[in-house]
Amino acid sequence: PRRSSSVVAMASSNKNGTKESITKLVSDLNDAKLEADVDVVVAPPFVYIDQVKNSLTDRIEIAAQNSWVGKGGAFTGEISVEQLKDIGCKWVVLGHSERRHVIGEDDQFIGKKAAYALSEGLGVIACIGEQLQEREAGKTFDVCFQQLKAYADAIPSWDNVVIAYEPVWAIGTGKVATPEQAQEVHAALRDWLKNSVSADVATKTRIIYGGSVNGSNCAELAKQEDIDGFLVGGASLKGPEFATIVNSVT
Ligand SMILES: O=C(COP(=O)(O)O)NO
Fold first, then answer.
1. What pLDDT, on a 0 to 100 scale, did the predictor assign at position 58?
2. Is 234's C-beta closer than 6 angstroms to any atom of ligand 1?
């Protein structure tokens, strides 16, 4: 049976977004006809979360694009889980490939972040994914299982976790994984959960795909047994196209 589905829109990574463009995007999302059985989350840049939270339909939940690894304190510039909850965030995206390969966060640090966010009641969209050279070297599963294990070793429970498989070579490139490529990894991740955590967690945990998803390729991807939704970047900046992607997930 299809797990309840989810779609997460990064809505805009930090290279996109102004107060004006976010206002337009929120208006498009408020007007969109979204399938009732699809959980929709948007993840605006920190500085626009309050604006989005105060103008977006309650039908759509808010995620932050990152959070601090522990209780807020003397960590100038970091944003704490407590503050994100205070402004109405229900989710946080962690382990995004840009946090790993640009900012330099390692698997263990990301696992600790996920554990703290979950322990404080935030849901976690736990990103994993291989780089092109790792895929070309036949290391896709090794890399993804290692990243997944780092979450599994740290978190208190899988109840509020959505796994986002995002092959790094597909993010922002237009080179979307084929349905077969994505399904192969999603199935392997679900199998890993079954063997390393439990059959129940494997069945219930949503595994969403991210990396150049758009209104044209979402339907074929959504048909795959183990693809439970999407993490959408560029295409989430266009309300109508994002609605098409959401509605493909039912
Ligand atoms: O995770 C993503 C996906 O982006 P695209 O959909 O544009 O590939 N961006 O941060």
1. 95
2. yes
List, in sequence order, every beta strand (DSSP E) within 13-159: 38-42, 60-64, 91-94, 123-128
Neighbour-count burial of 136, counting CB atoms closer than 10 A to its CB (0-12 exposed, 13-18 middle, 19+ buried) = exposed
- CA nearest 10: which of 121, 101, 92? 92
| ipTM exceeds 0.85, yes or no | yes
Q: How far is CA 104 from CA 71, 99, 152, 208, 242, in A?
A: 21, 6, 20, 23, 30
- Weakly modelled stretches of the chain, pLDDT under 70: 1-3, 10-15
Place of tokens 């390969």: 101
In angstroms, what is the C-alpha Rg of the chain?
Answer: 17
Q: How far is CA 166 from the centre of its chain?
A: 9
Residue 166 Cα: closest atom of ligand 1: 1
Q: Which residue has the tokens 């890399």?
A: 143
- Using the 8-state DSSP alphabet, how is residue 100 labeled? I
Q: Are strands 161-165 and 5-9 parallel, antiparallel or unpaired?
A: unpaired
Treating both helix axes as pointing N-terminal to C-terminal, what angle do 19-31 and 239-247 enclose, rounded to 10 degrees? 40
Q: Which residues contact 232 (CB under 8 A, 6 or more apart)?
A: 7, 8, 9, 10, 210, 213, 242, 245
N-term to C-term CA, the chain: 11
Ligand 1 centre from 215 Cα, in Å?
Answer: 14
Distance 74 CA to ligand 1 centre (A): 32
Verify whether ligand 1 is closer than 6 Å to residue 213 (CB atom): yes
